[in-house]
Amino acid sequence: MRTGIIGTGRIGSTLARILVAAGHQVVLANARGPQTLGPLVAELGRAASAAHPAEAAGQAELLVLMVPFDSVRGLLPPHAVQDKVVVDATNAFGGPGTPADLGGRGSSDLVAEWYPDAQIVKSLNTMHFETLAVAGTAPGERLAHFIAGDDVKAKEIVAGIITDLGFAPVDTGPLHSGGILRQPGGPLFNRPLTEAQALAWISH
Fold first, then answer.
1. Exposure string for 14-24, b = 16+ CB within 10 A, e = fewer
2. Rounded CA separation 29/35 (Å)
3. Residue 6: its pLDDT value, please?
4. Residue ranges of the chain with pLDDT lower than 50?
5. CB 69 within 8 Å of CB 92
6. Which residues make beta-bridge pairs with 29?
7. pLDDT in tens, 99-110
8. Which of 120, 129, 105, 112 is nearest to 190 (CA)?
9. Tell me, what's the pLDDT at 96?
10. pLDDT score, position 204
11. What residues contact 59, with CB distance under 8 A and at least 6 apart?
């Protein structure tokens, strides 16, 4: 599967590296243009390419948004993600370390409004990039990556990617109620849990 990653900071670059190591292809994009991604593409080898964001969306079978939340609206033409699975890995902050006031709404609810023809899944937004880089191949019990969404098939696709990377997918339910648990200010935000711990928390 070719995964598009929009946002190539520390977390986006880390995701690209572990996806390629797991046998996936990636197409990378950022706000500065594909010419700035030459070193990362060269590091990743033939499984990686670079494009502009809308081009990456068109080439990818699954798209991951790893840009600042405030950049998401208008980032892509809505038709570019029509019928695609889009992983919202963004976090909405109102200031340094302060959750944004969204009036009780989930940040992924807004992403779904901005891109109504995409299948939005909230995931990959709560793990520090240094943990993401190594935890999937470390010995011991798998760490959990939570997923939330309203489309069962879309969640299955994302769960398969998470499993390929050596993590445990744990479903927190629909996009609103499940996503809001893991955005800044939620009880599962930035809280690394093993699969058993995550399942115990969900069932409590």
1. bbbbbbbeeeb
2. 10
3. 98
4. none
5. yes
6. 6
7. 999 998 999 999
8. 129
9. 87
10. 82
11. 2, 4, 27, 49, 51
What residues are paired with 64 via a beta bridge?
A: 5, 87
What's the confidence (pLDDT) of residue 1? 84
CB 11 within 8 A of CB 66: yes
Amino acid at residue number 107:
S
Q: How far is C-alpha 12 from the geometric centre of its chain's CA atoms?
A: 9
DSSP codes, 141-157: SPBEEEEEES-HHHHHH
Q: What are phi and psi of 87, to 5 degrees?
A: -90, 120
User: In Å, what is the CA distance from 77 to each residue of 12, 118, 140?
Assistant: 21, 11, 42
Amino acid, single-letter form, for residue 89: A
pLDDT digits (tens, 9 = 90+) for 51-72: 999 999 999 999 999 999 999 9
Q: In the structure encoding, which two tokens stand for residue 32, read together?
A: 């500065």
Residues contacting 196, CB < 8 A, separation 6+: 141
CA atoms within 13 A on the CB side of 103: 2
Number of Cα atoms under 13 Å in the Cβ half of residue 51:
18
Q: Is the whole model's pTM more than 0.85, yes or no?
A: yes
- Residue indicated by tokens 């700035």: 36
What is the model's pLDDT at position 53? 97
